[in-house]
Amino acid sequence: MEKSGIQDLGGSPALPPPPSDIPAGVKPERVDTAKRAMISRPEFGRTGNRIQLESNHFKVSVNSPDEIFYQYSVLISYKDRTAVENKVIGRKIMDKLYDMYSSELAGKRFAYDGEKALFTVGPLPWNKQEFTVVLEESIAKREIPSREGSPVEPGKRSRRSFYSKSYIVEINFATKIPLKSVLLALNGYETEKAQDALRVLDIILRQQAAKRNCLLVRQSFFHDDIRMFTDIGGGVSACRGLHSSFRPTHGGLSLNIDVSTTMILTPGPVIDFLRVNQGIQNARNIDWLKAKKMLRNMRVMTTHSNREFKIKGLSEKPCTELYFTLKGKPGDGTHVEVQPEEITVYEYFRRHRNLELTASAYFPCLDVGKPRKPNYLPLELCSLVSLQRYTKSLSPVQRASLVEKSRQAPLERKEILTNSMEKYQYDKDPLLDACGISIEKQLTKFAGRVLNAPKLKVGGNEDCIPQYGKWNFNRKRLYNPIKIDDWAVVNFSARCNIDHLSFELSKCGRNKGIVIERPHALIEEERQYRTAKPSVRVEKMINQIRAKLRGPPKLIMCVLPERKNSNIYGPWKKECLVELGIRTQCVSPPNQLNDQYLTNVLLKINSKLGGINSLLEIEDASRVPVIKDTPTMIMGMDVSHGSPGRSDVPSIAAVVGSHTWPFISRYRAAVRIQSSRVEMIESLFKPSPNGVDDAGIIRELLNEFESTNRCMPSQIIVFRDGVSESQFNQVLNYELEQIIKAYQYRSGGNVPKFTVIVTQKNHHTKLFEAGSSHKNVPPGTVVDTNIVHPTNYDFYLCSQNGRIGTSRPAHYHVLVDEIGFSADDLQNLVHSLSYVYQRSTTAISIVAPIYYAHLTAAQVGKMMKFDESTDTSSTGYGSHSSGGSVPDHEQPRLHKNIAGSMFFC
């Protein structure tokens, strides 16, 4: 669970706070935060078969609950009172402070967050104090004076000396945080200090990791151990570490430990990195413009002197032509002054350092100096320092490699976690020991339940019973197949016989109950356009289609030349879905077509054209509990953000809503772009200035529901994805309020009953079946005791069949339940919604509405990414900045023929 921030001390909080989530430019009405609050757990579920489970929560005992954490603000500055911002230096200063002034601190150990706060168990002898701390750094005595534009390494080191620097540390008392507040929270008593106390405990663990020289990333830490590095290509490695956080649970306080992964630059010679990063064999082919951009701010270690520097840029000239003035000094035992000479970096290292540069003599040098005082290092003498985070987005190849290489079977993951508890001895920290905290070394054991898989209905009213989360259409027909008699196939230069593909698809369709006529046209891309820009290729293909067909077909199958992330996909989808209003199915078929592949394609096509592949048995019989008697809409909401660090890329909000009550398998999507990195959805309710119309998302979904059912929904179930615990209040008091206003605007004042559920996949709780070392927990495993929140209404559900790696359960938080589900009815509904995903024949890991919203946002994002209407933007998004409003004309509006379909399947 994410914790609330420690008291603001004028600087950054102990851990990064969540971004501001209220949309920029939006001024919602003032809402009393107490107006809507999260409900408490009304009861526990009972249905399902009991199963013995283990989880990566380690039980924590607090033997001295009356201890109090004292929080102090810390301000570290240089002697001129300029603040010290570097966290690494800050930690060194505070470590030195304890060594120098232990008696003034009464021998008390403290936990320092690396920025503005420290914590002790019990008070320090004073409330305010100022210290002077002196750090001594070992430096080399130089035989040659410093000179402008010279190589960094001037001369041989004759001996080492110490350079002393003084810092001023001001420490002021801030507040008290009683440890007992955690125990009160575990017993259901609201206390403001409980989250702060948990945050302090987490900071203590981070300090432990910092003292072991780990890379710290939020609440995860990573050791400099090459055995933990896995190369994923492009000069990037996945570094395996551990996540740790204290969590209040129904079973008491626990320490959640999990395997964590971050991306780092692969350490090693800079030249090797550039070759791998640019995908070339010979270093002579390095693109130096790309190299300059990539290398900036990376840290390197010189192999000949073992010193570390940060790269500022590259020299404009190669090493053999890069001159600087080498100032002389008296020779040994004489007073004769040597005249300055102009010398190249290459000659300097050859004559004065006895280093023959071979690999990089004709390459640019690294500039590790200041803007007006460059200092140069030959490339071959530099290696990338270990544990440097790589924060750019991964390529499709890197992402696939990461997924493949980071998988861990349940047994392997359990062994790593239990070994880490033995190895690192978290509770041996003096601060935790002072609190009487002890931590068990074994995974927590408890009982869970396995819900029965829902029965499905397929064609001919035939029953289909999933087995271990899977089913198939072998010798079965689709529930409601759509006849395909007006379609075409286009091929963007893929090595594919589209005549054979269409024949095999028709043949497979007959077996599944779909009548597929011969396509009206089979169109191959003209050779002269194969190397043109994607938008041009799409335009020319559309012209070919118009020339060969009398009117627009209902479906176009598009064969892409690449298996994944083809640059044709975005402009093709935009042209078909936005401009022409034609449903399209993109494929990249394997060399050998098989029934499974063709069936999966048909499932998507049938859903897009309005068919239904399968239904829940209770859905077919209109017996879905709680929903069957009252018009109900089910919504899924998600927001997709651009790559990390891209503030120019807008976020995309997508909401899907069911519209064919009492069915819960058919959905319509509405999508809007919004301010970059904003998580709260801006356009749920968007009345026009004159109050005549509402252009918001909810209006679209309500219109579709009413036109289908001839009534408005009396109940709305909202599944919200992508928000953390710290944002739950905003979901309740901003987003839900906007939905209510949109409904009232549409209905004239009525308000339906709501159930609001947040879905989380990005958490660190894992489930293991006790006594089964190699298998994942069976699909349908649900947990609503022991490791859940002590009072809030949440549960874990692992609905999918985890065949590879360790399954991660979805974490569902029920924020509001005005509808009044029983625990069993709600958990079974959530479980059933994992089986209505029309694109596959397996239960998925989260409810289908959330997945559909995610697919919608991703598809619209690709339409925008490949929009080449402007050449001034490398991404095609325009140039609006983070947090700014997004012009309406930048948003692709779906064609009216497409908007109500499941185009996202």
TrEMBL record:
It comes from the Eukaryota. GO terms for biological process: defense response to virus; regulation of translation; regulatory ncRNA-mediated gene silencing. Residues 871-885 have a biased composition (Low complexity). Residues 269-386 form the PAZ domain. InterPro entries: ArgoL1, ArgoL2, Argonaute_N, PAZ_dom, PAZ_dom_sf, Piwi, Piwi_ago-like, RNaseH-like_sf. Gene3D superfamilies: 3.40.50.2300, paz domain, Ribonuclease H-like superfamily/Ribonuclease H. It holds the Pfam family Piwi. One of its GO terms (molecular function) is RNA binding. Residues 1-27, 871-892 are annotated as: Disordered. Keywords: Repressor, Ribonucleoprotein, RNA-binding, RNA-mediated gene silencing, Translation regulation. One of its GO terms (cellular component) is ribonucleoprotein complex. Residues 555-865 form the Piwi domain. Belongs to the argonaute family. Ago subfamily. This is Argonaute. It comes from Heracleum sosnowskyi.
